[in-house]
Fold each of these.
Amino acid sequence: MDFDLPPDDDPTRQQVRAWLRDNPSPTGRQLAEAGYVAPHWPRPWGLDADPIQQLVIDEELRAAGVRRPANPIGIGWAGPTILHAGTEAQKERYLFPLLSGEEIWCQLFSEPGAGSDLANLSTRAEQDGDEWVVNGQKVWTSLAHHARYGILIARTDADVPKHQGVSYFVCPMDLPGIEIRPLIEMTGGHTFNEVFLTDVRLPADSLVGEVNKGWTLAKVTLGNERVSLSSGGALWGNGPSASDLFDTVRAAGGVDDPHLRQRLAQLWIEAEVLRLIRLRTVTAAVKGTQPGPEASIRKMLADEHGQRIMGLAKDLAGARGLLEDEGPLGQPDLHGWHYGFLFATALTIGGGTSEVQRNIVAERVLGLPHDVDVEVGKTWKQARAAESGR
Ligand SMILES: Cc1cc2nc3c(=O)[nH]c(=O)nc-3n(C[C@H](O)[C@H](O)[C@H](O)COP(=O)(O)OP(=O)(O)OC[C@H]3O[C@@H](n4cnc5c(N)ncnc54)[C@H](O)[C@@H]3O)c2cc1C
């Protein structure tokens, strides 16, 4: 890391502190209108903040115990894509309610036959007068049951190679023809859904960007990551971290078993490596250079590290860990270790599987040959016909 965060008299720091004195318990709408939800966005939605200013704002909000609205898909993915390619009317309509958390968003991308190979998607959108008629099925749609809108990618031309015939839409989730069926996880929780779309009529102004140029926008969506010095928690920053586990072990008087001690030391080393990789990514952003391979490497390492934290917490609970409310070493489950143990298995799948991350590292970092693509030169329709004949 070769930057220091500015001291107490830094103007941004002073401005945030003064604002927090006037707004000690801000609502999502107040945070959004002040530009503090996504400070790196352009005005009026953000503050055009550079990476250092973002980090200062993050630090001040955290110190004041202020949490930003929870709307991960809206703020993290839909918003940046609309900013990038949306019309002025779309920006005006969607961005503030999305930043304030008043309108939750979901992502209608994955399908039963299109996950890692997302461009294989077969949900169709056909133009009918001013409207688009959508038919198909999506799956693993997190938060669909709470969402006001979804970002939807659908096939608008089947007679071109698969990446070229995809368009990007905003889909109001209360339209006739949308059926949301819950998928209950092994945690007992309900985050995901299957979404069935039958003759759903999207208005003309639902299209984002140009017809058949949606794949480029889908890549904008998937590649968008805010500069953040997040806590390093194990469940994509939302769960307990290795240091929470060390605190729990210390509070219980430590462990003698040499094998368990070795696993704890291994986790400490991994957490430190991840912290340093994160600082390298932030340093690159602060210097205005593109982050290198750190982001892909970090995702792969962090998700597997998260599973090992949860696995060790469970092992430290021993046989009593079979009961839901037992934490490590006879401690109460204050950090949600049981839920985390069950949910952590999803981390190496969501947001690009670990195998796919390794492919990216192999190709872009190590310069190894690209995955064999049997569909080169074929239209989406020809490729699917060949597939069904196999
Ligand atoms: C927690 C979580 C949240 C999610 N939320 C959403 C959401 O809100 N919206 C949404 O649209 N989707 C969501 N998903 C879906 C997610 O994006 C997909 O599960 C993921 O892209 C993998 O696709 P798949 O499940 O179809 O697996 P597949 O792509 O079928 O993969 C099956 C297996 O094959 C391996 N594999 C596939 N291709 C290759 C290759 N080229 N080389 C080596 N191995 C390969 C994979 O690594 C995996 O082990 C979520 C998933 C999870 C776990």
Amino acid sequence: MTQEVTHEHAETVRNLELLDRRLRWLSSWTIHNANNVRDSRDGLKVGGHQASCASMTAIMSALYFYALGPNDRVAVKPHAGPVLHAAHYLVGNQTLDQLQRFRGLGGMQSYPSRTKDKIPVDFSTGSVGLGVAITAFASLVQDYLIAHGQLSPDEVGRMIALMGDAELDEGNIYECLIEAYKHDIRNCWWIVDYNRQSLDYATADRMFGRFDDIFRTCGWRVLTLKHGKRQKEIFARPGGQAIADWIDQCPNAEFAALTYQGGAAWRERLVRDLGTTSRTAKLIASFSDEELADLMTNLGGHCIETLMEAFDQANDDVPTLFIAYTVKGYGLPFAGHKDNHAGLMNTTQIEGLRENLGIAAGDEWNPYGGMGDNVAASLREFVANSPLGRIKRREAGQSLPVPARLPVPDGKEQSTQAAFGRILLELAKSKDPLESAIADRLVTTSPDVTVSTNLGAFVNQRGLFRRQELRDVFHAAKIPSAQKWAGHAAGQHIELGIAENNLFLMLAALGLSAPMFGTRLLPIGTVYDPFISRGLDALNYGCYQDSRFLLVATPSGVTLGPEGGAHQSINTPLIGMGQPGLTYFEPAYVDELALFMRFAFEHMQAPDGGSVYLRLTTRAIPQIERPDGGWEADAIKGGYWLRRPASDAEAAIIFTGAIAPEALAAWEQLAEDMPGIGLLNVTSPDLLHRGWSAARAERWGGAGSAPSHAEILLQALPQSAGLITVIDGSPGALSWLGGVRGMRVSPLGIDRFGQTGDLPDLYHTYRLDADAIVEAAAELFMGA
Ligand SMILES: Cc1ncc(C[n+]2csc(CCOP(=O)(O)OP(=O)(O)O)c2C)c(N)n1
Ligand SMILES: [Mg+2]
């Protein structure tokens, strides 16, 4: 290095060290302010994680103010959220008001949030493990876009996860690792804040050294940052190696406890273990207690130079795991204490930290407080020219116009699942410019159920996505098969192994393509309906950060019949109703399905839109003739009268989905005794319930009194009429309709499962057949 370069390097290190301390201070103070300074109205602990923040400030300083590339995207360990805000505060992207309102309504969020925070947050985090894994899927999305000419290779960025070491215990990490290896992902960094403490205690020693193996096996480069420069320098001195060896042997819990106890305890222990007469003893004796404590905790993850070198070293596209050894609560009074996860400094302690940094009382929020004018000015300039200071964000891509209608497959008897496959096939083959533009942006994905959820025809048309060619061996050998399975860069289907959690993370990453990479993709994921539960937290995670996708779950309910009791899904309608950011439809007929798929393509792109869940079935049912399209407007709002009731009707049957033929048969039987009985097809229990809640909230808020769609539909009946609700799923999905206008209700549905059988047997056993509906109606009038 020339002298000039060396000088500049030393200057950078010094600035990053200052920023490390500043981030530690600001994150600690923000949390302290919320807990101890701000007025409390409810006496509840506000919380925050000063120790988790302090563990990461050097890593984040070196990343955000040195290593970050202009197109890099970062998922920040949830409990280091305040450090991210502090970094943006230094750059001028975050306001004091937001910091002061940490964890208050409208203030900066507990954990980084894409949708609620005012600073640019690339990935929301909070549920540990998921924020890490999504970065691997985001790098796959980036490769997809490059391969499809929708992102310039010059604009490649790294997808980075700053993670806690306890996140390595989450199973989803390993599911993701396997999938990532299969797809040969690149440009992904996972940086582990390896403080060897989780929430409860120190992490297990037996895993020491195993993580490297696991990641290397999966094609990752592993860079272990165990020792800081100071440690390395001392280890090289006479007698130093024994200290290095001692650290290597020291169990996690003991290391943490000694860190907490400080210099005198370190000395006592080292002397006990290493003796008093050796060269090592002499070396140890040459340090004061304070110097010894500093030395023993000078781990790689707190050493700016070590971090810079590691980041420089990984300057290619190989996925890289950085194991950065750290101390939880570094530089704070509870460093290393096993209970420090949610530990908060008391006022005396935070004042001690403030004084230590030379910050005057009252100057706590000053971004550069306690520094001399020259130092502050040069740090300000350094920050302004740092990667974070120059960060720019991509514009979300243009939305695509959606054709007025999607093709409706013809056929007298059809299942919604088969029709779904046929609609996608029609789109894939279409010459219509609007339809083919939509088809070009579709990306389908499925965890090993592509064929059995009828995605096969689309895949035959559009191919599997692979960066490297994948030959279809069966096709090449001329072995007859309905399924082409060739992979290439233009392919539009991402085949996943059988891990549903990965499906939802893949969808979440694909569904963020517009805000993240500037190109809107229309992702469609298929899964067996019961296995939604496997990936529920990842589904919630995607919805929470406003990712946009279409989830097609099929088969569903007991209607899959002989295919297996274990595959019956019961509570998914309630999941569909309960999940914010996801609109659930369950079509009975295939023209409804086409309508909802069209809606989905629009809703996935609308600024105030969201994701869509279609609950489909393999049961082919007779389709119905429609006199006109009058039903459509109501169907898209959640329900329409298939048989309008007379104004004096005594009852109505309300049904959802595949049991439409039973509902119709019962309606015909009952119509003989109860002329004018209505038949209501609820296409979305979710939209009806949401609309009802929203209308009530609006009324309470004094903003007019427009009735909701559920109220409008039920107003067609006298209030004295009874309702029989029926769905192949939890009866609670529809039974609430009785409460809308205070009407009697007799709900049918499934609250048990597990029995195989054919449909007549199952519908009889679970009381979903026409007889059950008639009996349920009779029950309403018994004694009335
Ligand atoms: C899925 C999930 N389970 C549990 C929690 C509660 N929790 C928050 S942080 C944490 C462990 C933190 O340890 P680590 O990842 O090592 O972070 P550190 O604070 O040590 O840096 C746990 C269990 C959570 N946020 N998400
Ligand atoms: Mg930890």
